[in-house]
Amino acid sequence: MNLQVFEDMRRIDLLKLAASLGGCYLAAAIGSIFTIPNIPAWYASLARPDLAPPDWVFGPVWTALYTLMGISAYLIWREGLVDPRIKAALGAFVLQLAVNVSWSAAFFGLRSPLAGLVVILFLWTLIGINIKKFWEISRTAGALLIPYILWVSFAAILNFEIWRLN
């Protein structure tokens, strides 16, 4: 192989990484459309449990999680799209990402902790499926999603407590 082929491969990998991260950050941006306007008045007015972290924690945590998710998706995508397992794994990833956005729409957009709770339970299940599918292809890709399911587990407890208190 000549040097040009390696440079082309490197460029394609960088584009895949950028697209994977960009897709995750786009999901975050869409979710924030529902979230940000509702924090100062509606969310601030809710009774929250003692385990609720300060509001400033959510931004950095979610930024880190979306970054890990994007890298994870890239690791699967770089394996190619010929194998049906890869297509299924990436399909599961896109589905859980869409449901992730749906949680913001349900909880903040609809101002409904109950709707958020229903969505987050579905999301948790999809993340588990996604981890399994990624793990079978790349253990690193699967492992990168573990902080995500741990945070969503905590978020589900928090969501439940907010629903219960309000």
Total separate domains: 1
Tell me the CATH architecture.
Up-down Bundle
- Helix/strand-derived category reads mainly alpha
Number of strands: 0
What distance separates the N and C termini?
A: 64 Å
How many strands, which pairing sense, and closed or not: the largest β-sheet?
A: none
3D architecture notes:
- The protein is built from seven helices and no strands.
- The chain has about 170 residues and is mostly helical.
- α1 (about 5-35) runs antiparallel to α3, α1 (about 5-35) packs parallel to α4 and α5 packs antiparallel against α7.
- The longest helix is centred in the first third of the chain and has 33 residues, at about 5-35.
- It starts with a helix and ends with a helix.
Question: What brief labels describe this structure?
Answer:
166 residues, elongated, 7 helices, single chain, Ferritin, mainly alpha
